[in-house]
Amino acid sequence: MNGRPGQIHAAVYPGSFDPMTRGHLDVIERAAAVFDKVTVAVVVNPQKSAPLFTLDERERMICEAVAHLENVNVTHFQGLLADFVKRESATVIVKGLRVVSDFESEMSTALMNRSLSGVDTVFLPSDPRWSFVSSTLVKEVYNLGADVSEYVPLAVLHVMQSKRPAPRPA
Ligand code: PNS
Predict the structure, then answer these.
(1) Ligand 1 pocket residue status of 91, Cβ below 6 Å
(2) Which end of the chain is more exposed for a tag (fewer CB within 10 A), N or C?
(3) How far is residue 66's CA from residue 22's CA, in Å, rounded to a whole number?
(4) Ligand 1: distance of its center to the CA of 113 in Å?
């Protein structure tokens, strides 16, 4: 993140957000305090699996959860992140690191993205309160009847409940 005097630091925070968690929200809030502008970029087709939430649902849930942050906007992208950050004239990519092992794959991804776009990645360590919270785990425990209200923003909880009411534990 080489700064020229007066340069606006426009960050892109990319992810699947299927769904957004309190950990994601924490990273966005902290990025918004550091950079002039943060664009939360939802990938159109997460590679991991078929998403539980549609692109529109994921975007709407994030918009609601970040409504209190004036310098944050939400959009989506398809294809290479490197192309998207160039189109957006972003100066930095933000990634959250939940656990040390995340760094291993994120390091090569960051270097590839910088090689392709010239844009560096800044890592924000997850708040320890959320380091065990992932979208995958939230979906799994919710589907098995757990209360996930502690782990997702309210906007997400409402959509989860409307989509698939949590079964009562036997
Ligand atoms: O929330 P996730 O699933 O960890 O986010 C992954 C994401 C969207 C950041 C990553 O899959 C991505 O950047 N996809 C775009 C495709 C791309 O640019 N691939 C090459 C990375 S070097």
Answers:
(1) no
(2) C
(3) 11
(4) 10
